[in-house]
Each structure stands twice: as C-alpha cells, then as structure tokens.
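The passage that follows is intended for readers who have already worked through the single-chain material. We present the inputs for a multi-component assembly, then the predicted structure in tokenized form, and finally a short commentary. You are encouraged to pause after the input and sketch how you expect the pieces to fit together before reading on.
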Amino acid sequence: ADKPKVALVMKSMANDFFRTMEEGAKAYQKANAAQFDLISNGIKDETDTVAQIKMVEQMVNQRVNAIIIAPADSKALVPVLKSAVDKGILVVNIDNKLDDAALKEKNLNVPFVGPDNRAGAKLVGDFLGKQLKSGDEVGIIEGVSTTFNAQQRTLGFQDAMKAVGAKVVPVQSGQWEIDKGNTVAASMLREHPGLKALLCGNDNMALGAVAAVKAAGKTGKVAVVGYDNIAAVKAKLADGSMLATADQFGGKQAVFGIETALKALAAKQKQADMPAVIKTDVVLVTK
Amino acid sequence: MSAVAQPAAPVLQLEGVGKDYVTQVLDRITLSLRPGEVLALTGENGAGKSTLSKIMAGLVEPTRGTLLLDGQPFAPRSRREAEDHGVRMVMQELSLVATLTVAENLALGSIPHGGLWRAGRIDRSALRQFAQQQLARMGLQDIDLDTPVGRLGIGTQQLIEIARNLRDSTRVLLLDEPTAMLTPRETQELFTQIRRLKAQGVAMVYVSHRLEELRAITDTMAILRDGQLVDWCPTASLSEAEVIERMVGRPVDQDENQPTRPAGARRLSVQGLGRGDVVRDVSLELHAGQIFGIAGLVGSGRTELLRLIFGADRADRGRVELYPDTGAPVVAEGGWRSPAAALAHGVGLVTEDRKAQGLLLPLPIRINATLSDTRAVARAGVLQTAQERARVADFVQRLRVRCQSQEQPVGQLSGGNQQKVVFARWMHRPCQVLLLDEPTRGVDVGARADIYAVMEQMCAQGCALLVVSSDLRELMAISDRIGVMCNGELASVFERGQWTEQSLLAAAFPDAAEPSEGHGQAASPTESRELP
Amino acid sequence: MTPAPSAADARKPAFLTGEAGTYLGLIAVLVLMVLLFSSMSQYFFSMDTLVTIANDIPAVAVMAVGMTFVLIIAGIDLSVGSVMALAAAVAAHAMLNLNASAPVASLMALAAGLVCGLITGSVSVIWRLPTFIVSLGMLEAVRGLAYVVTDSRTQYVGDGIAWLSAPFVGAVSVSFFAAIALTVVAQWVLTRSVFGRHVVGIGTNEEAMRLAGIDPRPIRLTVFALMGLLAAVAGLMQAARLEAADPNAGSGIELQVIASVVIGGTSLMGGRGSVLATFLGVLITAVLEAGLAQLGVSDPSKRIITGLVIVAAVIIDTLRQRRADARH
Amino acid sequence: MTPAPSAADARKPAFLTGEAGTYLGLIAVLVLMVLLFSSMSQYFFSMDTLVTIANDIPAVAVMAVGMTFVLIIAGIDLSVGSVMALAAAVAAHAMLNLNASAPVASLMALAAGLVCGLITGSVSVIWRLPTFIVSLGMLEAVRGLAYVVTDSRTQYVGDGIAWLSAPFVGAVSVSFFAAIALTVVAQWVLTRSVFGRHVVGIGTNEEAMRLAGIDPRPIRLTVFALMGLLAAVAGLMQAARLEAADPNAGSGIELQVIASVVIGGTSLMGGRGSVLATFLGVLITAVLEAGLAQLGVSDPSKRIITGLVIVAAVIIDTLRQRRADARH
Ligand SMILES: Nc1ncnc2c1ncn2[C@@H]1O[C@H](COP(=O)(O)OP(=O)(O)OP(=O)(O)O)[C@@H](O)[C@H]1O
Ligand SMILES: Nc1ncnc2c1ncn2[C@@H]1O[C@H](COP(=O)(O)OP(=O)(O)OP(=O)(O)O)[C@@H](O)[C@H]1O
Ligand SMILES: [Mg+2]
Ligand SMILES: [Mg+2]
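Having made your guess, compare it with the prediction:
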C-alpha cells in the first residue's frame, strides 16, 4: 500500500513521439511493478491546455504521489501545478520546459528533465548545412506556431542556416500534420523554384514534404529533414528521400522523469530542493 | 368605435389596385367597403381573392393603385402596421406557431408583460384572461390554454386562428376561407360573431367557396375572374347559378342527388381500430365502386381514423383487412406498419394539411404531382422527364390547375390549386382504396365538379373511397353511405336516402340523445358504443 | 424540414419545478455514470472530485447557455471557441501592454466578445446567410485575431482576474456559482419572458412570427450578441483559472458545447430546448471526462467510450421522452 | 423553420448545361481569386499550380459529393475525417501486418468506411436521433479506432496503392479524374434519378414524403452509407498521395468539407443543393489555401483572410442568386 503512485500527464496522444514516450514509461513500470503504480493520461491534441489542466486536477483527486508532466502550454499549466505542489505532490517537468518567469512569479521550483529542442534542431540543420552553399534558398515548416517546441526547433534550424549563410524563405506552419505539411511544402516549392531544402519541425510534416517534393518531380533536388525519428521515416531515410532527423529518445524521456521523481520520493526530498534541469540526449539520425 | 349612423362613408376604398407577379394576377380593382358591411369575395381558384385580401392586410404590396382608409391614403408595409390601423386578416393558410401554447398564440405579437422591455416577465394572468376571452368568442372554452397548438387538430387550429383576430379594436376584418375546415356548428359560431361585429360597425370581407354561406351572411358580393372584378352587387340580387356562371365563365352541373352506385365486392374492412381515446374502436366496411363519407365535428377524430387506417400512426388495437380483386385477403393487425406498406397494398391517403403533410412547397408542380409513384415515370431508376411532363400536363388540364407552367413551385399557387396538385398525385397512382381527408378544401365550385368527376371515374374503376369532409352538402351529394363520428366513435352510419342534414348534425353532437330521429340507424355491424 | 408538429415538439414549459420528469432521463444517465466510476475508482466519489468538476465546468456551462438560445432559433455558432480565446487575449493585452486595471481589461474583453457576436448576428441577418457558414468564417477570422493580439504566444496574466476562479464557498469558485445563477436566469427568460417565447417562436416558424408582426431580426441579433458576450465571459473564466491567455484556448470547444446542449435535448432544427437540461448535458460530459481521466484510460479507448456515451445518452433521453409523450 | 418558399428555393434542376447562370456567382469568385493571387505572385498562374491544386483536391472533393447528399436530406456528418483516417489505417494494417495485396487492402478500407456510414445512418434512423449528435459520437469513436488500428503511429505504406495518385494525364493524377467523374455522376443521380428526387423530397418535407408512401429510412441509410464509402475513398486517395496512414489524418476536415458544400449553395436546412456547385466550392477553398500558402502569408493573417473569404464568397453567391430570382 505504500507503493508510490505516479501520474504521467502527456501531451498529444495523437503524436508518435508521445506515444513512444508513454510506452517506454509503461514498460519501465512493468519491469519495476513492485516499486510504483502508474496512471497515464494524455490530451487529444497538443493545444488542448484546459483538458490537460483537468487531468492534473483529477490526478490530485486520485491522491498520486508524483506527477510527471509534458505541459501543453509552458505558462498556463503553472497555476494548477502550483496547487498540486501545495498539496504535497512532487512535480517533474518533461519534454516542454515550463516558463521560467511564470515559475518564478509563483515561487515554484519544478525540475525539468528533457532535451534541448533548439540544440537538437541545430544538429539536424548543421548536417544539412554541409550540403548547402551560401545563398541557397531553404524553407522551414513549423509545427503549431504557438507551441514552445515548435518555436525552439524553428530557432535551431535558423541558427544552423545562418551559420552556412542560407536564405530562409518565410516560415509557415504545417500544424504538425502530414497533409498540412504537404500543402505548405507544395506551395513553397512553387513559389521558390530554386528551393534546396525543407526543414520540418517534425517527421509527420517531413513525410508530407517528401510527398510534395516527389509530386513536383524534384526528388533528389530538394533535401528534406525532420525531427523525432518516428518509425515511418525509416524507409524514407533509407531511400534517401529524407536526409536526416533527430532522435531525442522519446521512450526514455518519461522514464527519466519517473526516475527523478522516485528518487526524490525515496529520499523524502522536498520539491524546492530538487535540481532545476536535467538534460537528456538528442542525437542525429541519418541513413 | 365608428358609428353606424351614416352608412354613406366607406371605411376602406380600393382604387385601381393591381398586382403582378411574373404575370398579372390582379388587374385594376376598385371596390369600397362601408362600416357594418359584409362583402363576399368570390371567384375561381387563383382568381386573386387571397392576393387582394393580403394587399388590404399589408401582407402584399400592390403593384399599382391606392388604398384609402377613412379617406386617408393607406399603404401598410406590414401586417402589424395594418393591424395598428384596425385592419386584421384571418389567413387561408394557417400561421400559428406549433411549439407555443394556445394562449401565447392568441396573443402573439402583443403578449402582455410587465417591466423591462421584452425581456420582461409575461403577465400570465393577463395573458390567460385575454386568451379566455378570445376563445369564448368562438365558443371554445374547453380548450386547454397551455396546450401547444401543434398538438391540436387542424380544424381546431383554424378556430384559434379566427379567435385570435376577433379583437374589439378591429375596423376591417378579412376572413379568407375561414370555414374551409369547419363543420356547421363551428360555422354557426363564427356567424354569430360576424353578426356581433357587424352590429358594432366592423366592415368585413368574407372569402369562401361555399355559396350558401355567402348567401346567409354577406350583404354585397364581388366576383373575381382572372384577376378582374366581373361583378360587384348586392348578394341578394344574384341567384346561385348566376354567381357560378360569372365565376367560372360556364355553367356547372351541380347535381345534388346522384343515384346510389352499385356496391361492388368488399374492399376494406376496419375492425375495432382505436388509439387512445382519440379514436375508439371504429369498425366499418368499404365496397368497391362506392364512396363512404365521414362527417363529424372538428376534433371528432376523423383525421386520426384515416391516419390509423393508412398506417401514418400506429393503432393501439384493432385491425385492417384488405380484399384485393384476386388473391387472398391481406390482414394488417393494428393497421399497416407504415404508409409505405399501405401503399404497397394499394391504399392511398389525401392529407388534410397540404402545407405540412402534403406538398413539397419549394418544388415544382411536376415533382409534387408524381410523388406517389415516381417510378412510374422512370425507367430503371432513371427519370423520363418528357413522359412525366406529358402526364402532368394531362392532370393540370383535367383539374384546371391555374399555373404559369408545371415547373412553378407549388408554394406559389393559390390554396385551391395546391389542393388540386395533392389530388393529382392520386390520379397518377391508382389505388384500390383511397382515403380522402377534406379533398375539396378550398376548391372552387367549378374545380370541385372536376374532382367529383375524377372520383366518379375512380369508383367506376373499382376503387373504394373513404371521404372525410366538413362540408355536409358535399358529403350528401357524393356519398353512398355516411358515417358520423362523435368523440372518436363512429356514432352512426346512414345509407343514402336515409339521411337529412338534421339527422347527420344530430348524430355529430356528443350531447345529443340517441339518433332517435328515425332516419339514422345505429352503425350496423360496426357498432361500438362504450362510453368512458 | 417541418415534420408534422408531433406531441414531442411541444412539451409544456417546465420551469424548475414544472415537469421534473423532463429531466429524468438525463439525471438517470448522470447517476449511472457516477455509480460506474465510483465502483471503478475508490477516490472518484469524493468531495475533491465534485469540487474539481464544479470548477471545471463554468466556461462550458456559460457558453452552453448561450448556445441553447442559438440552437432554439435554429442557428448555430461555431465561433465560440475563437471568441473565448480572443476575449482572454484582449484582457491580457490590456493588462500587460496598456496597463489597464483588471476590471477595465475585463470590460474590454466583454466588449470584444459582444462585437464578435454582433458581427456574426448582423452579417447573417442582413444578408440572410446560414449562421453555420458565417460563424465558420468567424471561427477562422477571430482565431487569427487572437493570434495577432497575443503575438501567437501564451500571455501570462498573473492573478489580476484570479478572483473569478478563487474559492468562494468551500473550495468551489465564484465562476461556478455565476454559471448556476446564469442558468437559472436564462431558463426563466426562456420560459417566462416575452423575449424567450419569441425566441422559441422564431425557431419553430419564423414566417408565422413575422406575420404576427414580430420582427425576427433584432431577436436573432440579440441572441448572437448574447452568445458572443457569454463566450467572452467563458474566456475570462478560463483565463482566470490558467492565469494566462492562450491563443489556442477553446479550439474545438464548439463541438463540445453543442454536444452538451444537444445531449440536453435541445433540437438542432430549432424551436425546442431547455437551459436546465443543457446544464445536465454539461454535467454529463464533465463527469465522463473526469472519470475517464481518473481511471487513466488510454486515449483511443477514451475517445471510443466518449463517442459511445454521447450517443447512448441521447438515445436514453429520447426513448424516455417518447415513452412519456406516448402516455398523453 | 419553414421560411416562405421563395423563388430561390426553386431553381430548375440544372444538369451540366442546364442553367450555367446558377454557377456564375461561384465562378466569378473563383476567377477573382485567381486574378488576385496571380497579381501578387508571378508563379501562381502556372501549370504547376494548377496541377498541384488538381492533385490536392480529390479527397475533399469526393467527401464533398457525399456531404452534399447528406446536407440535402437535412442531415450532417461530422465523422468523415475520422472515417477517412480509419480507412487509411485499415488499408495500412492489411498491407503491413496481414500481408494483403493492395486491392484487397483497399477493399477492406472501403468496407470499413461503408460500415461506419451504415452505423451512423442506422443509429439515427432507428432511434430517430439528430445526425449531428450521432456523427459527433462517431467522430470520437472512429478516431479512437483509427488510433487502435495504427497503434497511434503514422504507418508508412509505400507505393502499393500509389497508382491512385500517380500522374495520369500530364501530371494530373488518377484521383482527380475519379473525383471529376464522381461529381458528374452524382449530379446526374441527384437531378435525373428517382433516388435523387426522393433525396431532395426528404430534405424538403420528410413527413409529406412519408405520407406519399415513400419510406424515408432506407433512403437516409443509403445516403449515410454512401458518405462513409466516399470518406473511405478519400482516405485511400490521401494515403496514396502521402504513402502513409496518419491516425490524425483529416481531423477537422469535416468543417472544411461542409464549408465547401455550403459555399456551393447547398442549404443546411435540406432540400436544396447541387453537386456541381459543391465542386466549385471545393475549388474555391483549395485555391484560397494554395494561394495563401504560396504567398507565405503568416498563420494569423491566413486564418483571418480565410474566414473573410468564406463569408464573402457566400454573400456574393447569395446576392447574385437573389438578383437572378428577382428577374423571374
Ligand atoms: N408569390 C407568388 N409568386 C407567383 N405567383 C403567385 C404568388 N402568390 C400568388 N400567385 C399567383 O397569383 C394568383 C392568385 O392567387 P390567390 O392566392 O390570390 O388566389 P385565390 O383567389 O385566393 O385562390 P384560392 O381560391 O385557390 O385560394 C395565382 O395564380 C397564384 O399562382
Ligand atoms: N398528436 C396528438 N396529441 C394529442 N392530441 C391529439 C393529437 N392529434 C390529434 N389530437 C386530438 O385528437 C382529436 C381528434 O383529432 P382529429 O384531427 O382526428 O379530428 P378531426 O375530426 O379530423 O378534426 P379536425 O377538423 O380538427 O381535423 C382532437 O381532439 C385533437 O385535438
Ligand atoms: Mg386563396
Ligand atoms: Mg381533420
């Protein structure tokens, strides 16, 4: 009965990446079933902040000992997490870092366990950069523009492109989705016939971009890179229609968070005393 | 209120009023109306009676001409504005709101309320009092004020529509076929009101196709034909035949005493059919080649009986048996499962509420006329429009439907012409048994004769007809037998020759003694008299 | 269109005590769900859960009140989620960039909502366009505006308007009581005021209302203006709870709101509806969401269950009602 | 609601050549948009753009055909996006895990769509429920199923069914021609067949149809089954184009489809609509999307413009039509 109960509150369950994350956590729990119980929940898309808040509240009602959260919004989740902490629940932040200013205002310390999206995107961008010359035109397809990860990845891509001196045409959003990514990529290719590469904020949009490149008959002339390393891109990387993607070990993200929380629970550590940031790895994936 | 003292000054004058839609529907009409005068407005279907009334009531804007009210120019832009000037109209087509209560409908547009603009609380006691008073004028004290009108029969709705317009502030009252759905009792109630208002100096326009009513209640008569005013004179100065001739432009055979048709084989037998206490265990038999008429007061359950036989509503009890010419009889316990099932066995229904239950108003006449059997004008599911046009052209001609073309939306037709289109549907699909609910509602005398002729022809072809009508004269003219419904029961059945108007009426009243007049015999094998 | 007015279309106005029976089907569904969840999780049936649900529903409940009126006049408003986001964005912008006080910022937010409602209403009234398409246009356009106002970033507003979501009685927030009060008042207006009766009349038979001398246009406009205003109220409630204005707030919430209203038995074809039943509809969806979250049901199953429960709730309510009507 | 039957409700069936005028307003909007975008981007008015748009629209166009019939019977189907995803998921699952051949997998996908349509249709017919709520339930439930079938992951299907999106005439795909053919056939069915006439009749006055002896239930059921089937076709087309089955495919597409149909002048209240006009509606939304993306307009502005254009298109079409009717 004193087995701690850990709640995992995820972002979009409709996204491969988070699905992988959840499965990693479940597998980990199975392997360590004696040590803790896991309740996992996710919202249906990445923007349904309110639904996520409700989930945090329900987890508090379920009297869990710790909440591991991938916040849908880096600011809007802060008040509810604060009230959870006030009730003595440990909170660990994964994937998408909570906003520092908002945390500070609430006088809250939430450890962040996760990758640096901007650095990861730069990694992918740098690899692509080796193929580009200064002055080449490239396009960036962003995820849902209002999300922190989308913004960070775009920044990372831009950093890398600036480094090689490539010219970035206006950034457009593909809403993280395969068909929206396809539409946007097709338009970019038409408007900028000289485009050399498409940098996509996630692999779903990259798949859409690959289809657009193929439809435009430019396979091999326009490079496509993505992010997340979902299963469906393996074939694309293999046949060269996609150049690279980043893997931030979705399967381990949540596990790192859970481990951090379990450790703190075992040590009866207070929320305030937990470390602020624990970085996890991002690696480049190519053919 | 205006005085009756000087009969000279007209309250409402029309000078050269006309209306064009695509074609001209009203030429230049000049008429006037004095306080206390009841003017009969009559003419064929589509002659322009409703249009003329609507112009006076502010519902339609005239294309030409002027109106004067008390000598002042009168150009109401809306019904509300006309009502503010004391001009009110009872419309031919019902315009009640089904989900609102009887009381709310009666006061619609001026529901009494307290405080705060319209968000204010409804003054319920004032509302009830007002509603009660309006209903009392039509002798309708029994209706529950809180019943949504959608639950009431269409006849009762018509009475409410009338009651709603019987206001004291009225100076001119336009009644567009108010009695098309009413039986003699309700009609008498209305006449009492008309006389009362007349005495108060209210001027009235009374539109009807029932000539005997015009004779009974109106002072002067205006006859329209093709949008022209062909006559305007004291009612008494014209004989009925003259009126008809002027309306229709030809003499119409009004044979009131046809011989009884030979009874053919039994076609349909209804046994103990009932639903709640609206229809109580009715039994009757229809024979091929004969017309069975059903009389009764408004709300006596006639419509519901036809709906049960047709399967439009499901019966609680009883059964329907159909005897086709060949093959075994078909038994439907509790009536047919659906109208489609009834039709599959050759049972059809002409509905009484053409607007809500009969027609597809925005669609052309052609489509409406062939709706009962679209497959008949199609080959392998593909419509044969040319064939369809030819068929519909024939119906349009036989029933004299007044329209621009058969592509005209049926919603644009005059009421009587709409009714003809509903009827045409069942000429298109011949039936073994045809149930007709007020089939000549709003149809002019000439066209009525055409419809009777078609019914006659159906009989000759071995069809059995069951006709519900509020017009006793009509029923007596066309039926071989007449059943009278009272409170959901088939109170008595008369054979041709045994009935008089008196005996039929007596049987229809719930409080009347046994049909003791000697003419009526108790509903023979079908009797069912279990009072609750 | 225009099915024969059946008895079902014509329930007597049931104000609060009126015909408790009207609500029986919905209450049964609700009780059933609570029992089910309680049997599956020991913590579900607790004060905490009740309080959380109470604090969860105000935004949806408030919009559902407006949507009930909108559906009764045979309209629909798909833009409520966007309007909600815009209102919150305006309030945040006013406080953060214009240094407006919380009350002034709130008023500006309400004004923004009202204007949106007025635009939807007047465009559809003036050109006689289907409200579905006008509000769909507004859904896009207003969302775009919300992005512009927030600069596409969640704006942290702090606790300037947090009193709205602050505990009021026990741990239950002001918002909840406001939503309850609004529901009761709206039901009263619907059944007991001239305006309410006109709304029902227009939804049933607009032509007949026009003939009775009632101009439907100002009434339609009022209903949409009200909807805009209430969406803004919901936006403020939400912002108070999040202490932030999220430009994506309420995306997709329109379907949830409409579902709650329809579960409550309001007809999409107009002419029939009850605000109280709508509130029960809101409760049903909220309890379902809370219960599934507490059980930690997987997302695919969650969606399957939600879909089935929505349909089942409507079936149960419909059947109960038909049975009741048949007795007439 | 029964608005007065105006002449507008009563256009003659215009089959292809019928009354070209009916489509003039829409064509004007389309031409206007093309001119505008061409003036703003030198690359817009090019064969490439035309081809991309032609290859973009089949999925939406096919669903819009089904939706036109659904709206004409005064129904609505919100589940089409989910059904589309499920169909693609089933095909992917069959090919990847069951080693089915592409044709067999496609048939299974079509069957899945058909079953979804039959469920929506029969549940709403049997219990006489509003299709809005039934299809909303299906939207959730079927999406959940799509997650289950794909294991919540985008499935790469390779080019097994890629022939659907392969260039056929010039660079234009088979799908496009299929969509065109479907549109023409559907318009023909709507205006020239007994079935089409019954569909229009049911949408105009269901009770009158029932009393004319036409059972509306099988017709309703057929329309929804057809919608499900067409959504599955759209799902296959999309999967063929993207060579992947995305469990999130088509989320939110229902509103886009309905918007296209309504822009084409089909009434949400039933009884009136044209499949050809729907196709023009689809073109309008597709050109708009392509144009805005090609100009690289920012996301907020994109949404604002999209919203305004949707409303403007409907206004222009309505005004033109009213003017035409007045001349009658
Ligand atoms: N909105 C309209 N558009 C086109 N034609 C119309 C319209 N309204 C009426 N009409 C035509 O005007 C003519 C006169 O119609 P009206 O309703 O006045 O006839 P009526 O004398 O009242 O006939 P009934 O006895 O059948 O009621 C008819 O031919 C009708 O088709
Ligand atoms: N759906 C219903 N619910 C409750 N009562 C009804 C319903 N339909 C009809 N009634 C009532 O049943 C009785 C019989 O109505 P019905 O319409 O059959 O009478 P009718 O003789 O045809 O008279 P009408 O002239 O009104 O058509 C009336 O009192 C009517 O108010
Ligand atoms: Mg008339
Ligand atoms: Mg009747």
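Commentary: Chain D has a mean pLDDT of 87. The first strand of chain D starts at residue 155 and ends at 156. How closely did your sketch match?
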